[in-house]
Amino acid sequence: MPHHDEHGTRKEAREEGRQARKLLARAQAGSSYAAGEPILEVRGLKKHYPLTQGVVLKRHVGAVKAVDGVDFDLRQGETLGIVGESGCGKSTVAKMLVHLEEPTAGAIRYKGEDISKLSGRALKAVRRNIQMVFQDPYTSLNPRMTVGDIIGEPYEIHPEVAPKGSRRQRVQELLDVVGLNPEYINRYPHQFSGGQRQRIGIARGLALRPEIIVADEPVSALDVSVQAQVINLLDQLQSEFNLSYVFIAHDLSIVRHISNRVGVMYLGRVVEIGSDEQIYEHPTHPYTQALLSAVPVPNPAARETRERIILVGDVPSPANPPSGCHFRTRCWKARDKCAVEAPELAVPAWFAAEGGPAAHDSACHFAEEKQIVPSDERP
Ligand SMILES: Nc1ncnc2c1ncn2[C@@H]1O[C@H](COP(=O)(O)OP(=O)(O)OP(=O)(O)O)[C@@H](O)[C@H]1O
Ligand code: SF4
Ligand SMILES: [Mg+2]
């Protein structure tokens, strides 16, 4: 019945408009959101890519569980580092946060409102506030566009942020903010170094004056000497523009200097999350302990006493993850229970009662047991 449909659509449009206005108002309230409050709450987030067989008649034969139940908060004004080995789902999480991928399940709450299923105007209002900086500054910038057009491109979608007449000036300001000469506005990406290109990527990320920046391995493709400069720039921009960062990296040493809190991912899940001190000084998850044992220690005395945990075996395929705890096939503490029951991400009871730095979220049945099998006894 067409009459009904039309009525439904109009009602939906009205509802969407109402939601858009509400979100817009909240987004504009921006800096009034108190420091430390969760600006993003991610709950049970999943992304399963269907696996199909056959060319013509595609049959569904399973799924790649790229992200398989991720929980974390991003607090206003903080930097949350997310680390984990290649393929554990970091980029997929990043893409869902900025709406480049649609979650299979779960919620992404921005200032209390689930944005994962938004569309239309409401989505547009939110997207403006959550921007992404990509890993590879060599491929993420269109080689045929000038730097001015690259940085100013978001204004085509959001002309309200910078009306046509003011765009050039705005882009030049952005170049200046990221430490590039504003006169470079007509140059092309190939005329810049890797570090400079990443600055261009950051300027584009800032163009719409977002509140949240999701940076997916923003320095991994850069020389070590340039990495520090780009990290310092991000640090400085954070306080200048009151930004909250999700900062993704391969290893724990890169995020250490910039993160307030760190989440460790393994095979589509967050296995441990806590403050800088909690994760680096008092890790309770066997996987985090293994990652940290591989980080070089400058102090020779500490090096002597420290145990090295070498992770054996490869990361299992996300199309067929181990039952129970995903880490169990590589864990030296694994027992029968680990194959049957998936551990919850929560503060282990004993540590919770004790208080202290070990009292933070860890997804391990035996997190409380410190015992680590010495390397010569391991199979
Ligand atoms: N579009 C897709 N279709 C099917 N599988 C995908 C797709 N995108 C990612 N995957 C798979 O999902 C898993 C997680 O990928 P993702 O890129 O999120 O990992 P990552 O942690 O960012 O890895 P890296 O450190 O290498 O960047 C991988 O096994 C990957 O092959
Ligand atoms: S739950 Fe079991 S397999 Fe998983 S990390 Fe803890 S001890 Fe290891
Ligand atoms: Mg990635």
Automatic annotation (TrEMBL):
GO molecular function: ATP binding; ATP hydrolysis activity
Keyword Lipid metabolism annotated: no
PROSITE patterns: ABC_TRANSPORTER_1, ABC_TRANSPORTER_2
One of the GO BP terms on file: peptide transport
Ranges of residues in domain ABC transporter: 40-292
TM spans (from-to): none
Assigned protein family: Belongs to the ABC transporter superfamily.
Protein name: Peptide ABC transporter ATP-binding protein
